[in-house]
Design a protein that fits this description.
By secondary structure, this protein is of the alpha+beta class. It contains three helices and four strands.
């Protein structure tokens, strides 16, 4: 997967949908949301769907083709967990 990321346009929604399917071993039943965000010096991309529980977020430093973190949560916990993740990432960036 890292080789693929080296050649990847970070905003390619189709790639992230495929990665979600590979990692969860589930098929998307209907359209899903691919959310792009920035926290401090990090890019985040999140894939979620109302049809399945897993929500995946990939995180990488802005301006690089590498990444170092995959965050997994559940649909019912998404909002609260994302707030906690963003707070943690901001604290890490300030160190």
């Amino acid at each position: 997967m890292i080789e693929s990321l080296n050649k990847l346009d970070w905003t390619n929604e189709g790639f992230w949908k495929n990665q979600w399917e590979k990692l969860t071993e589930l098929k998307l039943k209907s359209d899903c949301e691919v959310l792009f965000d920035k926290v401090s010096q990090l890019d985040l991309v999140t894939v979620k769907t109302k049809d399945w529980i897993p929500v995946l977020t990939w995180i990488k430093p802005i301006g690089t083709k590498t990444w170092g973190l995959l965050f997994r949560t559940e649909l019912s916990r998404f909002r609260g967990d994302m707030n906690e993740l963003k707070n943690l990432l901001k604290k890490i960036d300030n160190k």
